[in-house]
Known about the structure:
Blueprint: H1 20-32, H2 41-52, E1 57-58, E2 61-62, H3 69-72
Antiparallel strand pairs: 1-2
The structure holds iron/sulfur cluster (SF4).
Amino acid sequence: MEDQPKRCRRCLLREMTGQNDYYESVKRYRATMPAAKRTPDADYERRLAACKECRHLENGTCMQCGCYVEMRAARTDMHCPLRGGPW
Length: 87
Ligand code: SF4
């Protein structure tokens, strides 16, 4: 029987083993973003906490828009595709 890739519902990249390269990219992306565009840490964590409660989060990806949520939440001008506004 062939191994199926594991699907992790309501997991962020930073919580998933084997996704370290992607998560390092997320961290670099945030670190190099102009401060005016970077979501402040507390707001960033609040956004990610909302994604963790959402049934559309799978393998760190929002199944509504196809983005890694840790990337999407990093920018102040991005929004949750379901809510149509900031998380
Ligand atoms: S961005 Fe919105 S729809 Fe997507 S996983 Fe997060 S809370 Fe859910």
